[in-house]
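Lab notebook, page 48
Experiment: co-folding of the full assembly
Goal: obtain a model of how the components sit together before planning crosslinking
Operator: M.T.
Materials (sequences as entered):
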Amino acid sequence: MLNVVMISTGEEVLYGDITDTNAAWLSAQFFEQGFAMTRRVTVGDDYEALAKEIEMCSLSADIVIVNGGLGPTSDDLTAASAAMAANVGLEQSDAWIAEMKAKYQQLGRVMPAANLKQAMLPEGAELIDNPVGTACGFIMQLNRAWLFFTPGVPSEFKVMVKEQILPRLQAMFNVTDSKVCHRLYTYGLSESSISDLFQVLTLPDGYCLGYRSSLPFIEIKLFAPQDDIRSTALLSQMTELLGDNIVGEGESLLDSIANLLPKDATLALSEQSSGGFAINWLQDVSSLSARLAQSEVMTDRVDEHACVEELSTLIALRAQRLHLHSSATYTLTTGPSLIDGGFMLGLTTPDGCWCQQLMFKRQYRNYDRRWIISTVLFDMLRRYLQGKEVFGCYESLDRVVSERL
Amino acid sequence: MLNVVMISTGEEVLYGDITDTNAAWLSAQFFEQGFAMTRRVTVGDDYEALAKEIEMCSLSADIVIVNGGLGPTSDDLTAASAAMAANVGLEQSDAWIAEMKAKYQQLGRVMPAANLKQAMLPEGAELIDNPVGTACGFIMQLNRAWLFFTPGVPSEFKVMVKEQILPRLQAMFNVTDSKVCHRLYTYGLSESSISDLFQVLTLPDGYCLGYRSSLPFIEIKLFAPQDDIRSTALLSQMTELLGDNIVGEGESLLDSIANLLPKDATLALSEQSSGGFAINWLQDVSSLSARLAQSEVMTDRVDEHACVEELSTLIALRAQRLHLHSSATYTLTTGPSLIDGGFMLGLTTPDGCWCQQLMFKRQYRNYDRRWIISTVLFDMLRRYLQGKEVFGCYESLDRVVSERL
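Observation: model returned without errors.
Model output:
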């Protein structure tokens, strides 16, 4: 069993200014590839503390990934700490200086002097290219461990891990228990309800389940041995149990909608309580944004005097008006927030119009509310396109009204 | 200087199924209170590894917060590991059993036998009440350190830290070196350019600088000793150096716009290349969304034949049309993307209309493009409201056209 350690650096992580998403991402990637983490450590921008940490880890670990502290500023000390841990000096990488100068030239700029620092690597270290930034990574061997030093900027970190570090590790270590990860994206069930449902599952040896709850979805991961026939049966059993709460198999809600949409079908959106979240979200899937016929975002002011029935009529009317105006195949509408923490949704299709009013069962901040409203809105379309019941069951929401016109 | 360590436990954290938000939250809380983290460690549900980690940390740390592994299930091993580390046995806390039974009785249920495990604490440990759950915390003294054991459920963890652990720490340790953090939010300068600018700064003892680059902004943090008069001079020197690239002092771009907006001023938005990002972003600041008079999101299709001049006229016309229709005080407009990776922006005010076309100097994914476009759009308004030059300098963007009408 390999001993794999990650060292995250930086006061911004250690003092809680940012959540260490790189750590979670790397841990998940490594787990899938058979390099499950043994331990993770976070230290600040402290030259000696980091050097000590690197040395300590190098004594017991086979693989150490050090993340962050490769920037040009005074609080980026990782290269110096690595040199101290290995008891060597720093030497300038002319290759990387040339690389950085070229990058700046492309931007029509001269490289700031501060960047020279990013080319100072521990003596004997091997450079790792950073195709998207000025912070190169590097590799050192110290005591028992192979040390990989990586930049903190998530986009740069991920490219480096995927394109250079993982392939290298696979070549260096003969990993037997690398797994395939099958993903099911669900919406509407809580994690505990799902694990209750899954009581009946029996996982064969070498199989394991993982849940990743990223509001508002819960991603279910089945880790299975490479090309094992039993996974098919297991997956269909899981799919059976989750029913129409599955918004996507191996793909997100919006991606599955994009794949379900008939050719030439168009979309129109009218948002109020979702405040533009839906339209902005939709832009992330180009094949959906290309279908957009019309979009508006109204100010979400509630008429204090409007009663629930009036509001239902309102959303129905608005959905149909938009349908006429935009002549889009499908129109999606979010009505105003209800005073006591609810919202309205409308879906118009060639087969008719569905409207519902839902209430939040607990408090959410505004951003999360808009996210949930948009999710249920798109889920109505997903359900319609799959021929499922358009009004789904959502544990965190109460349905007040639902009408089909 | 206190040595403060957090140990997070659990495979779901170590394998990346969940991001360790407890760690970021605790770190921020502790930093504010003068208990800045020295180090954080994450280990899995491994009885011996956790015991070893606890013992190691207890040798060098003054305060150790252990989080997670206090549940009723077989993979919750923290109490046993703590006992092993301290070389003591486990003893049952009758007080906590009574407490748990009472909690279940309130729910009209009988306590499952599995919960008995949660009352087994290391000999000599002091119980910490958990008002919202069945996992009690506990305190032990081992070697140099005070060890605090806390439940992993975020809501339970946070209540315990706030109501019981922090007050206790403040009573136990006379914290002198608690720091204030002054924040400057900038846009338009790269981190390396900023550090070049700051070469001339001399930081007095006890001061330190931190940078946090969260696209598209760079947050600059000045950590200063409590009520130290020198920080005022230092801050104004930094403000001087950064000039109009500061989008907010101690507050974000949108918050400063909200504070700069004249009473009764209203906003109208027409988006194309920003695809609804701006309107959705604006919803996060209620005092801004309340000012919204009108908003539309057009599909971002480019007329291949339109030349740059035509497009400039287009955005100017659209900005002014919107200004008339909405009769809003300020209208913000993003025009279509140019074929070769650029975008147009328009700002209309009572003093006239500003339009500009900008080009990206490098590739961004669609989401980041929309974010940057929206940022520059709002930055135009911020600059106008501050009486600064509306057309700012942005390192990552080239200006193609700029007109004032």
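Interpretation: The radius of gyration of chain B is 28 Å.
Next step: discuss with group before ordering constructs.
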